[in-house]
Amino acid sequence: MPPTSPNAAAPTPRGPRVVAAAACVVEALALAGFAAFYLYELARGEGSDAARVAMSAVTILLGAAGLAALARGWLGAARWPRTPTVVVNLLLLPVGVSLLQAGRPVLGVVVLALAVVALGATVAARVPDPGGGDPS
User: 24 and 85 in contact (C-beta within 8 Å)?
Assistant: First the structure.
C-alpha cells in the first residue's frame, strides 16, 4: 500500500528481518552454551591449560555478544547487520559440511539449515531507506 503523503515512510515487511534476528539469537545462544561448557570443563579441572580454556571461553562469549548485537540490529531499522550476518553464515557453511564429513550428520544438517535460513532471510530482508522513504 503506497504511503498517504510524500513524507510518510512506507511500511517495511518485518518477516525476513525477524527471521534473520531469530537465527542470530539461536547462533548466539549456541555459542554461549559452548562457552558455558568450556567453563564447566575448566571448573572440573579437565582442561589441559586453564589460561587457554578461559581465553577460549571469553572469545566465544564475545562472538555470542556480537551475534546478539546483530539480532538487535535486525529488530530495529538498522542497515548495518546485513554484511556481518552474511559473513558469519557463509563461514558456517564449511563448518556444517565438515560436521557431515566427520560423521556428525544431525549437527551438520542443523548448522547448514540455520546458515541457509539466515542467509535467505538476510537476502530477502528489505534494506531500510536512510531518508525514511520507500527503498524500491
Answer: yes
**Contact at 8 Å (CB) between 28 and 67?**
yes
Residues 18-58: tens digit of each pLDDT: 999 999 999 999 999 999 999 999 999 887 888 999 999 99
Which residue has cell 566465544? 60
The helix, strand and coil proportions of the chain, stated in percent and rounded to the nearest 5, come to 70, 0, 30
53-58: list long-range contacts, CB under 8 Å, 24+ apart: none
Distances (CA, A) of 109 to 33, 34, 63, 100: 19, 18, 22, 7
Indicate the pTM of the whole model.
Answer: 0.81
Closest to 59 measured CA to CA, from 89, 80, 38, 82: 38
How far apart, in whole angstroms, are the C-alpha atoms of residue 68 and residue 48? 30
